[in-house]
Amino acid sequence: MSARSFRFVVLGGLFAAASVAAGAFGAHALKSILDPSMLAVYETAARYQLYHALGLFVVAWLVRETDDSLAVKAGWLFCIGILLFSGSLYIVALAGIKWMGALTPLGGISFISGWACVAWTAWRAGRVQ
User: Fold this and answer.
1) From CA 1, how far away is CA 57, in angstroms rounded?
2) Can you cite an annotated GO cellular component (predicted)?
3) How far apart (Å, rounded) are the C-alpha atoms in residues 74 and 27?
């Protein structure tokens, strides 16, 4: 495994583990503390974190198979998206700092851009063979 693909496997594992822990914390400790709308915000953060942590495994595979720098960009876009999208939603839900919600769409754009990079990398790799 290359160092670049290894990096995304490690990050994917760490983000996935953290999202499962966050989800369990939300389901057990926060259910009685947060109002239902903020609990839903928190759950959205954990869910999207897990989706994109799993996406990092896809990226690691693409990097290994193609060694394409665009796949590497996809991985970093997923990481940025997790921090901005999920991170801002966790802060809004837990700390009530509403202005942090302004960062959420930037994280969403990072996610969308990352998936576009995944698709473009796969398309280019498929055309080469």
Assistant:
1) 13
2) plasma membrane
3) 31
Residue type, 125: A
Task: Give the pLDDT of the chain (129 residues) as one tens digit per residue.
Answer: 889 999 999 999 999 999 999 999 999 999 999 999 999 999 999 999 999 999 999 999 999 999 899 999 999 999 999 999 999 999 999 999 999 999 999 999 999 999 999 999 999 988 766
- pTM score, two decimals? 0.95
Which residue shows structure tokens 């198979």? 65
Question: What are the tokens at 73?
Answer: 């960009």
CA gap 113, 19 in Å, rounded: 21
Query: Are 59 and 26 in contact, with CB atoms under 8 Å apart?
Result: no
Please name the residue ranges forming H helices in the chain: 3-25, 36-66, 69-81, 87-95, 104-128
What's the one-letter identity of residue 108? G
